[in-house]
Design a protein that fits this description.
It is a single chain. The protein is mainly beta and about 120 residues long. Helix content is about 0%, strand content about 50%. Strands 2, 4, 5, 6, 9, 10 and 11 form a seven-stranded mixed beta sheet that branches. A four-stranded antiparallel beta sheet has the order 1-3-8-7, with no helix packed on it. Strand 5 and strand 6 form a beta hairpin.
C-alpha cells in the first residue's frame, strides 16, 4: 500500500493541526495504521494507532488524552487530530501500515509500509 501524509506545518504552542494519511494500492481497510514521529536527536517513536476494523486505538503517554486518531476506510484515509500542541511535539510525523489484519504495534519494525513524513513545528 502506498501512503501519502500531509497536514504538517508551523504553529504556535497551544495551536492545532490535523494530519492526514491517504492510502492507495491495496485494500486500506485491511491494514492497521500507526502514526510515528521522529524528533531531531531522538529515536522514531510511536504516537498513535488505530486497528484495521476501527475497534481499537492506542496512544503514547505523551499524547494520550490530548490527540485523537481516526480513520475513514471508505476513503482510505487516517487522521491525527493534534490540539494543544507543545514545542516538544516538534518532529517529522510519519504514517505507517501493518497487516493485513494485524493488531496495533508500538514497534517500527512491525510496520511494512511508510509514508514520506510531514514536518510539524511548534514554536513557544
Amino acid at each position: 500500500v502506498q501512503l501519502q501524509a500531509s497536514g504538517g506545518g508551523l504553529v504556535q504552542a497551544g495551536g492545532s493541526l490535523r494530519l492526514s494519511c491517504a492510502g492507495s494500492g491495496r485494500p486500506f481497510s485491511q491494514f492497521t495504521m500507526g502514526w510515528f514521529r521522529h524528533a531531531r536527536g531522538k529515536e522514531r517513536e510511536f504516537v498513535a494507532g488505530i486497528s484495521w476494523n476501527v475497534r481499537s486505538t492506542s496512544y503514547s503517554d505523551s499524547v494520550k488524552g490530548r490527540w485523537t486518531v481516526s480513520r475513514d476506510n471508505a476513503n482510505s484515509v487516517v487522521y491525527l487530530e493534534m490540539p494543544s500542541l507543545k514545542p516538544e511535539d516538534t518532529a517529522v510525523y510519519y504514517c505507517a501500515a501493518t497487516g493485513p489484519y494485524s493488531g496495533i504495534s508500538f514497534n517500527t519494525e512491525d510496520y511494512t509500509y511508510w509514508g514520506q513524513g510531514t514536518q510539524v513545528t511548534v514554536s513557544s
